[in-house]
Amino acid sequence: MNLEKVVFGFFVVLAATLNFGFFIGDISDPELHNPYELFAAVVVNLIATVLKFGDRTQIGAVHLATSLVADLQLIGAALLFGYATYVSTAGMTASWTASVVSLSGGALLANIISVVLLVVETVSFHRG
Amino acid sequence: MSNPLLAFLVDLLRRDEERRPHRATVRVAAASAARASASIFLVLRRMRAPLIVLIVIFAVSVLGLTLIPGEDAQGRPWRMGFFDAFYVMSYTASTIGFGEIPYPFTYNQRMWVTISIYLTVIGWAYAIGSLLALLQDRAFRQALALQHFTRKVARLGGPFVLIAGYGRTGELLGHSLDRLGRRFVVLDDSAERIDGLELDSYFADVPGLAADVRDPGTLAVAGLDHPSCEAVVALTDDEEANLAVVMAAALLRPDVPVVARVTSRSLAQRMQEFGNPSLVNPFDRFGDHLRLALKAPASYQLLTWLESGPGEPLPPRGDPPRSGRWVVCGYGRLGQELTADLRAEGLEVTVIDPDPDDPDDEGLLVGDGSDPWVMAQADLDRAVGFVAGTDNDTTNLSLVAAARRANPRLFLGARQNRAASAPLFAAMDLDALLVPSEVIAHEIYAQLSTPLLWRFLREMPERGDAWAQELIDRLGGLCGEKLQSLWKVRLTRDEAPALVSCLGEGRVRIGDLLRNPENRDEPLHAVVLLVLRGSDTTLAPDDDFELAAGDELLIAGWPAARRALGTILFVDAVREYVTSGRRTPSSWIWRKLTPDRPAAAVDGAGRR
After folding, report:
1. For B48, which of A36, A50, A56 is closest by C-beta distance?
2. Beta carbons of B82 and A78 less than 8 Å apart
3. How far is A50 from chain B (nearest CA, A)?
4. Which spans of this chain does the record mark as coiled coil (chain A) (predicted)?
5. Domains of chain B: which residue ranges?
6. Is this prediction's pTM over 0.90?
7. Tens digit of pLDDT for each residue in B296-331?
C-alpha cells in the first residue's frame, strides 16, 4: 500500500462527497445548503488540486484539468454566496440560492470525472 | 474485412518502414524536449507540501473565526460570516493588519486571531522560502537553462552550424563564422566557457549550453534534428567525445556533413567508419603546410591568406631552406608527422627526444633538448632548420632561444600550445609558428565557409608557385593588402536574372562583367577565384573566360564590389551598360518610347 496513493484518493473522493453533500437538496431552498459545507468543499478541492500538481502523465494532466474546473466553479459559487449575503439587499433569495447550488452542481460533475479517472487508473494498474 | 481497410493498413505499415531513420531522431528530440519542460513540473511538485500547508492553515483560521461567537457595536451576540473571516485572515496573514473589522473583537476572538497570526506567518514563510530555495537550486537552474536554449535553437530560422566543444579553436571558428554572417550553436562540457560566450562580442545571438556532448539527446536539443542544421563540428579536447559526436551525427542525421578534430590515427579510422566525416589533424596539416611552404612559398602564402578569414592582412612569405639538415625537438605526434614530411621532401632530419617510442629510428638523438650537451650533439652549426615541437610552451621557447644562440641563421619553427603564450612567441619573431587550435579553426572555416573555397584550396597547390604569385599580385592590386570579403555567385535565373537572360544570346566574358556600374572603364575591385561548371573547376580564370548559365563563381573582393555585382546581375539596364557600354532605359514607359534601341543592343551583343 502506498501512503501517497491513499492520501491522494482520500482527497479526491472527499472533494466529490463534500461537493455532493452541498449540492443535494431543493435547489432554491437556502435552508438545505449549509455554507460550512461549501467552505469545506472549496478547501478540500484546493488541496486536491495541489496534490495533482507535477504529474507528467496524460491521465495526470486530465486529473489536474478537472480539479481546476471544480475549483473555478466552487469559488464562483462561494463568491455568489458572499455577494448575496453581504452586498445584495435581498439576501439569500431562492434565485441566488439556485445560482450558487447550480454552480456547485457543475463542480460536482467535474469531481465525478475526477473520481472516474481515479477508478480507471486503479483498474488499469491492476490489469497491467 | 473490407479490402480498402486492409490496403490502408498495409500502406500504413509500409510508410512506417520508410520513416524509420527519421523516427530515431524524433524520439531523441522528444525525450530531450520532455526533459526541458521538466522544470515546470519540478516547481509544481516541490511546491505541493508548502501550498497544502498554507491552504490548511488558512482554512482552519477562517473556520475558527466563523465559529467563535462575537459581539456587534451594541453588544449583541454576533457571528462573523465567511467573507469577513476570510478578509480578516487575508490581511492578517500577509502582515498588513487593518485592525478589527467590522466590530471590535471579543477576547475569545482575539485569542484565536493570535494563534492564527503565528500559524499563517509560518505558512507563508515556509511557502516563500521553498519557492526561493527552488529558484536557487542547481538542478532547477540547469533545467531552466536547457529550456531557454531549446527555445532559442528551435527559433533559429536560417541555416546554422552546430559546434560541439568551445575551446580556443571553437572560439576562433565562431568569430570567423560570425564575420561571415553565419549562425551557430555551441555546446561545451564546461559552464565557464558557455558563460564566456555571453561576454564574447558576436553580432548574432549565439545559443550555448553547458552539457555533455557525448549525449545524443544534448546534440538533438542543440539542433542536430533541426531541419536548418547545415553542419556539425566536433572540436573537444577529448577525442572519444569527438568520436561520439561523429557517431551520433552520422546515425541520426546522415545528410549533414560532419567535421571533427582528431590527432590519433586509430580514432581517425574509427570515425571514418561512420559516414564520411571530414577529419582535421592539426599536426598532419602543419606537416603538409610545411611541405607546401618548402616547395611553393607563394602557394603557401595564398593558402594561409584565404584560410585566415575576412579582414586578415596578407601574411609574410616564409622562405624555408630547401636543402640541408633539419633538427626537430620532440618526437610526439607533431614530431613524427613533421619528420616523415621533411624526409619525404628529401631532407635530412635529426630528431631529439628524451623518451622516444621507437629508439631505433635513424637520426634519432636520445636526450633532453634543453641539455647543452645534447644540443651540441645535434650539431646546430651545420643545420639549416630547427623546430621545437614539444607540448610544453616554456620548453619550446627555451629550445628556440638556445638554437638561435647556437646558429643565428637557422630557420626557426615552434609549436605554441596555449593561447596565453602568444605574445612570447610573437616576440621571438619565429619563421614558422604552429598553433594547433588556429590550424584547425582555419581549416574548418575553409571547409564550412563555402564548398568552393575548400575546393579552390585543395586544387590550388598543383598550379605551382608562379601561378600563386601572379594571383596574389592580382588580388593585392585590386583589393589591397587585406582580404575583404569572399562570396559565391550562382548564375541561375533566381540569383542572376539579368545576366542569365543574355547568356543564352551572347557571350559574356568575366572581364566585361566585373566593371564599375558607374563607369565601366574602371574594373570592379573583385577577383574571380574559381568557376565551377558541372563538376569541372577553373581556378582564377582570366578576363577572357566566357561564362555560361549555371556556373558557380567564388569571388574575393571589396564588400562594395559585392553590392555592385549584385546590381549588375539583377538589373538589366546596368548589366547592358557594363557588358556593352550602351545606356538602355530601365523603365517600362521609356523602353516603349524608344523601341528600337534595346533590340539593337541585343543584336550588337550577339554579333560581337
Report:
1. A50
2. yes
3. 6
4. none
5. 48-135, 156-280, 283-449, 484-601
6. no
7. 888 888 888 888 777 778 888 777 787 888 888 888
